[in-house]
Amino acid sequence: MIDLQRDGDVFVLRLDAGENRFAPDFLGAFEDALGTVEESEGPAALVTVGTGKFYSNGLDLEWLGANPDRLEDYLRRVNGLYARLLSLPAPTVAAVNGHAFAGGGMLVLAHDFAVMRTDRGYFCLPEVDLGMSFTPGMGALIQARLPKASAHEAMITGRRYTAEQARRAGIVQHTAEQERVLPVATELAASLAAKDGAIVGKIRRDMYGPALEALRGPVLA
Amino acid sequence: MIDLQRDGDVFVLRLDAGENRFAPDFLGAFEDALGTVEESEGPAALVTVGTGKFYSNGLDLEWLGANPDRLEDYLRRVNGLYARLLSLPAPTVAAVNGHAFAGGGMLVLAHDFAVMRTDRGYFCLPEVDLGMSFTPGMGALIQARLPKASAHEAMITGRRYTAEQARRAGIVQHTAEQERVLPVATELAASLAAKDGAIVGKIRRDMYGPALEALRGPVLA
Amino acid sequence: MIDLQRDGDVFVLRLDAGENRFAPDFLGAFEDALGTVEESEGPAALVTVGTGKFYSNGLDLEWLGANPDRLEDYLRRVNGLYARLLSLPAPTVAAVNGHAFAGGGMLVLAHDFAVMRTDRGYFCLPEVDLGMSFTPGMGALIQARLPKASAHEAMITGRRYTAEQARRAGIVQHTAEQERVLPVATELAASLAAKDGAIVGKIRRDMYGPALEALRGPVLA
């Protein structure tokens, strides 16, 4: 479901569960993988990548439908994953091989940089069209990472962005053809892996202090 | 002075009082029109537009000069209008048919999107040249909506932006020839009118919580 | 070491101490020069410029190495210089004639606008590669002035930006050939000198209230 491999100094975390929705066991495997990266010694950077046409479609709405009483704990756990990635003591790059929707789009934004596939796949925050709003932490994450106009358009209209549109909107930093997404992301990560992870983590945690506080705070506003 | 018409799902609020300065009765009519939109049922979006060469020139300095003791209440009411527009449970588009100066420029920024006329008219925050500063709420609104460099330039230098300059500075999102400003704004609004207004309003209020708090707070810092 | 000349309405503050690192006497001379500008009467704007290939390389690490017990006071003083420049009751322009590294880069960001030399010189925040993080005030200054993506890249990767790269990243607003850097900066400053300094100062202090508070607060987080 989740596979963590080391390629030189770069950890490649492959999300391999179809739409890569955040089922509880998926979250558990993701958390374990981040733990491995956090505890590693020496130069390290992290790349995450999905499989097929999905990077991640975010919340597991089917599981939530069957477990409505666990909504609050579940959202806390998802927000906690974003916070942990944003706090990671290593550079991080998302290789956006396909759709990054809703919580999957926010997962992209919790990385330092993102490379997005050009021929297919959208970045989209469709919450407005699903009758959902954002937890305070999710809103803080999006607004801390996106240009104001892009956060506004993405959150208020639920627009679907192609890779090139996402790059122009400041959602991702790079685009690549399908077979180049992971290599480009890995090269970028490798170029940053020698940085002192403790310092990278501290600078990033300082930069995003308010967003991290919101991500660790109440999920129901 | 203010005319509210419904065109399919789109409410078109026409400001028709010359320079469209915020005289008390103008504000009253504007507030009433927003009330009508707020209480409407079914799909809805709002377009505002001025007449002739003015979108709005903002504060009614002549009235203020004659009523200096009412400055604080007056500024609270203007800030309240911005807050109400920013909180509106429906998508909003400003059709900037002409000059949008000072408080009229901030009115533009309280909409989701803006379409600006290309052949004439400026967006300008001339406060610095009028010996005025901004209320905390006005400053918060401008800084919450504009890219940092644009907020800085607009507020510190009082630069006049043409439509194309305003688009490049991230002040408006679209430009159009005179006769196309209102149609383009209306088409954009119509494309968003089917969104659940309650959700649009909640997402927007969550996004701009600190700006809304400032707009509803003290006007004299 | 520091030379302040008046050219019409424009004060030109030349930093002339090699790499223009912030030695205590350099800071004292800089503070005195700002005092002269603050106390001047009539139209005024400030241009700062370095000499040779350096605008400023920031903290005087050699002096700090010899005076480790004075770290906290020293950082407070540097942050205080940024705060004073950001509060200055006059428009300010940095003529970035050469390298602006670390604290020298932040000095650039404390000005209203910056003109950067095209043929050589980098803007760089190399803290991550020096094993350093940013004081809360420094982080707040950088994040208050740079687009989010640029602040992230500059702080997390320590990238060196040429003038053109810095302009595209929103770090500087203008670029010019070597011999034109100071003239362009001076012309820009002169065009703004007639603005009421008290108003410029108030608007800027209002805009950057949280950053100023951080710059005047604790340096060790």
UniProtKB/TrEMBL annotation, chains A, B, C:
Record Pfam families: ECH_1
SUPFAM superfamilies from the UniProt entry: ClpP/crotonase
Any single biological process term in GO: fatty acid beta-oxidation
UniProt xrefs under InterPro entries: ClpP/crotonase-like_dom_sf, Enoyl-CoA_hydra/iso
Gene Ontology MF term list: delta(3)-delta(2)-enoyl-CoA isomerase activity
Listed PANTHER family: ENOYL-COA HYDRATASE-RELATED, ENOYL-COA HYDRATASE_ISOMERASE FAMILY PROTEIN
Protein name: Enoyl-CoA hydratase/isomerase family protein
